[in-house]
Structure prediction request, 315 residues.
Amino acid sequence: MIKQELYQAFKNKFDVVGIIHTNRYLNEAKKMGKKVPNVIYPTMVILGLAYPMRIIKHTTSHLVPSFYTFGLDYHYVLKTRIEEVMNNFNYDYQLGVDNHPHDERLAAQLAGVGFFAKNQLIINKDLGSYMFLGIVFINVELEQEVILNIDDDCGTCRICIDACPTKALYDDGKYDMEKCMSHYNQTKRELTTPEIEANYSLFGCDICQMVCPKNVKKGVKVYPEFELNGKEMVSIVDLFTDSEKQFKEKYADMSYLWKGKTILMRNALMVMLRKKNDKYLDLIEASIKKHETPWYKETATHIFNQLKALPKKRG
Ligand code: SF4
Ligand code: SF4
Prediction:
C-alpha cells in the first residue's frame, strides 16, 4: 500500500479507493490494443465518488438534463477533492477526471472498484453505477496494491439492452457509441429523424442506469456539492434569448455547459417536439435566422416545420 496516511486521506474524501501499480494498468491497456500515454509515476489510484439519482420532469417552460449533471460540475468537484488530498503531501502527481487520455474504466476494473457492465458502466457493489470516477498517478512506490471486491457481473441479465431506446447495447456486451443518445446529443452534427424522435433529454441519457437491478436502492447519498441549485432546470426562454456569455454566467459551474449553448438549443428542440410544445415558435424561428452553424440550422428548421404543423389546440 502507499503510505497509510495518504490512503486514509483519500478514504476521507471518496467513497471508493483502489490502488494499483501503474505498470499493471499500462501493460493491460497495451495488451488490449489501447493507445494510452506512458506514465512514469509508479502508483495509480482510482477513486469513486457517489452521486444521487433524482428524477425531475420537463415542464412547458423548463427542460432537464441527465441527473449526473445536477449540482456543481463533477470534473471540478473531483479535481478539487484530489488536490485537497495531494496538497498535504509532497509527492508529484498527475490527475484525471473524465477528459484525459487514460482508460479509467479499465483501471477501475483492475483495482476492483467495480465490474464492467453491459451498459458500459462500472458497477460498484455499494454504489451501483451512480459513481463518478477519477484517477491519480503518484510518484511514490507501492508496497501493496489495494484491490477491492469485484465478485459480481451482469450474468444473464439483459434489461438495459432491451430498454435502450436506440438499440446501442448488444448481447455480447459490446456497444455502438454512435447510436447512443448520450453520445449523439453531445455531438455537433445534424441529426437523423430517428435520432431526433428518440431523444427525450436536454443532455445525456439515464435509461440504462435507471433500469439496472444493480442500482436498486442505490443513488441516495448526496454530497453538498451535488445538492440541487435550481440550475438543473433550464429555461427555454434563457436558451433562446440569452447570448452565449449571458447563458454561461447564469448557468455557471454546470457540467452540461461544456459543449456550449447551441447543443442545448438543438436538444431542447427535440424535447419540445416530443412533448408537442409549440409555445416558442417565434423564438425558434428567430434563432434559425440568427444562427450561422449549419448543423443547428438544419435540425432546427426540420423541427420548427414539424412544430408549426402540429394541430392547434382549441379554446
Ligand atoms: S445512455 Fe441511453 S442510448 Fe446510450 S446505451 Fe444507455 S440507454 Fe442506450
Ligand atoms: S441492466 Fe442487467 S445487463 Fe444491464 S448493466 Fe444492469 S445488470 Fe448488467
